[in-house]
Amino acid sequence: SAGGASYREGRDKTFTVTPDEGCIIFDVLVDGVSVGPVSEYEFEDIQKRHTIEAVFAKGDMANFKLTGEYAGYPDLDEGKWYGTEHEGVIRNATLLGIVEGDGTGFRPEDGIKLSEVVKMAAVVWNTYYGSPYSFDRTEGTHWYDTYVNFSFKYGVIKAGDFADFERNATRAEMAYIFARALPESELAATSTIIPPDVTETDEYAAEIRTLYAAGVLCGNDETGTFTGEREVTRAEAAAIITRMARPSVRIAE
User: Fold this and answer.
1) Closest CA to 157 of 124, 179, 190, 137
2) Mapping DSSP to helix (H, G, I), strand (E, B) and coil, where does residue 62 land?
3) Distances (CA, A) of 219 to 130, 213, 223
């Protein structure tokens, strides 16, 4: 919404941006130029008229839809746990528009890079809020810069969290990133599983436990062991992000 106000030449004036109920600040435009999702903006030494416009976005889990037709990947065994004969998590994550192959296959058992995890989280965040942002893979030096920059801008990750986005992600790092892709209100507790190998002082413990409670994570064995230091596979990441986007398939125990 745009706003107007009186001003006195040579003075400073601060505007506070308050989103509509249930919305977030997606962007603020000053004289038609984006200054990011700021909650406050100050005009200094005003000499002319300016415009300030706030763009809000409202989240909705109904924005996640399975669309298109699933052609499959040549390197998938659809009879395995991730295949269409069982959970179909790679199919679902593909139809949700969150994951993709590399042109030759999906490589389900390979480790997934931090850049790919950030991309998945950025797509989830953007989809939840109605897809107001258009990612541009020609932005920056690397294909993933558009997703990393977006994630910095909207708080999915913070500057300094990771130095190398081209290395494989650990399960703990994935949990940290994914947990920040949706608001806490969409990660309500449905499960009583507590990971026995995660203590309060562990890095990313809060995010890991949030995803366990929400039924997004369930561990690797009957006791719910997490093994956060282990690298996460592409198939595992597809399963977890699908549970993020589709509460109906989350684990309730």
Assistant:
1) 179
2) helix
3) 31, 12, 8
- Which pair of tokens denotes residue 112? 């997934």
Q: Give the list of residues 6+ apart from residue 5 with CB closer than 8 angstroms, or none.
A: 13, 15
Domains of the chain by residue range: 2-58, 62-249
Name the percent of the chain lying above pLDDT 90. Answer: 87
CA angle 168, 237, 161 (to 5 degrees): 50
Pair 106, 139: CB distance under 8 Å: no
- Give the pair of three-digit tokens for residue 245: 């986007």
191-248 pLDDT, tens digit each: 999 999 999 999 999 999 999 999 999 998 989 999 999 999 999 999 999 999 999 9
pTM of the predicted model as reported, rounded to 2 decimal places: 0.91
Side chain identity at residue 127, one-letter code: T
